[in-house]
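Standup notes
- DV: blocked on the single-chain target, sequence here:
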Amino acid sequence: MPEDIYIAKMTFKCDFNAFNYVQFTMSDGTSSPVIQSAGDDKAREVTLTFEEDVAKNIRSIKGGGNSYCVYSVSFFDASEQKVASYDPGNYGDERANWSYTLALNERLIGFYGTYSTEPSTWYFSNFGFIVRVKTYD
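- DV (later): unblocked, structure below
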């Protein structure tokens, strides 16, 4: 992946305030495969759009969840200012119970998620991030 490519959009859906769908689109127009559980077709959808300078300067990610679901995610710049979030249940950052700080040579380039195969479970039980590590010559 060329150095100048960045995540331009992230689309999330939720059901009962828990994530059950994610897809991202890169700045060159390519999109990730959809990661989606078997949830309700009426799930609420939100798309976060990132300008290049914001996307390339995301330095930390915080989120909330429990053993059953993921319910919030927020993105922060180097000065710890929130640049975007998806929090359909309005839990707030004070209920975030996991975080990841990107190293200076890392850039966020993707996500992964897993969900239960139980028919009544319509949301992610795990959610993670893929980062690109820049190597120096």
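- Follow-up: The mean pLDDT is 83.
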